[in-house]
Amino acid sequence: MLVNSYEVVVLGGGPGGYVAAIRAAKLGKTVALIEVRELGGTCLNRGCIPSKTLLRHAEVIETIEKAKSWGIETGDMTFSLSKMLARKDAVIKQLRTGIDHLLKQGKIDVYNGVGKVQAAGKITVQLADKEEVLQGEKIILATGSRPLVPPIDGIEEAAYFTSDTIFDIEKIPKSMVIIGGGIIGVELACIFASLNVPVSIVEMNDRIVPSEEPEASKALARSLKKKKISIMTNTKVTKIEQQGARQLIHIETAQGKAETLDTEAILMAVGRAPNTSAFAELKLEMDGPFVKVDSAMQTSDPTIYAVGDVTGGWQLAHVASAEGVVAAANAAGGKQTVDYRMVPRCVYTSPEIASVGLTEAEAKQQGIDYKVVRVDHAGNGRALAQDEKEGFTKLIAGTQYGEILGVLMVGPHVTEIIAEPSAFIHLEGTVDELASMIHAHPTITESLYEAAASWIGKGVHH
Ligand code: NAD
């Protein structure tokens, strides 16, 4: 049995793990990365990238439909699911090749097998033909999460998709019920509705996307309903019955009525559970089902760090990467922490939702003295030119100094625009500074300027 020694061993090759491995190598450490599946993890292979590629198709389909009212007609539209999925696979492959190249450049040894941490410093990897034992002075756990499957009556006999399997669906279903109206649920609803699939969302909360502010949920719900997506909130799934190739979903509605939905496909999107079995032997201190870490991303064992979904908190790829960078720096002897004040949160539906910093509810809860301005996009030239005027921009700033605390935007391309208020929060910028900056006209970004100018009582259009 061979024993290979490294200064840093990273378990998991997603956006937390591979970024940590590259950073540790750049800091001069000898590094091994263990990944049982494809490099890039959930984000690249079964999450962010496939969903955004297919959402781009949805956007184009929607634009073609909308263009009829502008006097542009294309004739009947046809879809090729296989070509759409092939483009999605090509995008994934290109990015995966990029990661592979970066790991080679960093002289990182990649082990493609199941890793198990036996004890601090000792990891076994089950490869196709043999087992290897690795020694790691420091270990970074980046094992991510998997789709949660709730214990609904009948679920074990029923066929259903999760975000792990939906991106390889073989044919466009005649109907779809999405259980869970969170981020995965609403993004996938937009994809399938654009393919003319009647979609129903069953959400147990009183609104969809409960992780965002209520007014964002409301604006999105209005748009989804226009796309003929049915939304059932305050609704419980009581039982699922497989009937040949179809499923009957028994629900209890908000009014307490028992109803049945008959569908050809179910997508389960009720959250994600952390993958902790690879290091169960360690008996690390936990925070519920998640690994407990301190601000340095260190676990209860000082030689072991953990990053990304396995630690709970924000289950976002960019947060996992930021944590990976910090864990690598600290594993290499540094003293870094992650700044969570300005984590951009993006939902790539149409319209898009993007937010950063505090929500109004959080500002209130923290007892902060704040003032809010909301600018609707109905008066924004670019939004009207684009025929996408449903959105708005909401700005929250501290009353005393005008420091920007949080921004919420709903509308076209706001997932890109949110970088501007993120930079302001990062640099502790104020509404005066934002209002003194020339913004290009016509742009959706002007709504940020308008909100700031209005906040200090100097608005022109608001
Ligand atoms: P989520 O937590 O966003 O939403 C799950 C939803 O399911 C919630 O609204 C919840 O109330 C509902 N729910 C739970 N149990 C239910 C039940 N039995 N019946 C009906 N509804 C039920 O989780 P998700 O959508 O699965 O996404 C998982 C994670 O992935 C999230 O943390 C999200 O941040 C991340 N993600 C991010 C993006 C992005 O950044 N654009 C995209 C997709 C996923």
Automatic annotation (TrEMBL):
Q: Which GO terms describe its molecular function?
A: dihydrolipoyl dehydrogenase (NADH) activity; flavin adenine dinucleotide binding
Which reaction is recorded as catalysed by this protein? N(6)-[(R)-dihydrolipoyl]-L-lysyl-[protein] + NAD(+) = N(6)-[(R)-lipoyl]-L-lysyl-[protein] + NADH + H(+)
Would the keyword NAD be found if you checked this record's keyword annotation? Answer: yes
- A biological process (GO) annotation for this entry? 2-oxoglutarate metabolic process
Q: Which cofactor does it need?
A: FAD
Q: Which PANTHER family match?
A: DIHYDROLIPOYL DEHYDROGENASE (PTHR22912:SF217), DISULFIDE OXIDOREDUCTASE (PTHR22912)
Please report the name of this protein according to its UniProt entry.
Dihydrolipoyl dehydrogenase
Record organism: Planococcus rifietoensis
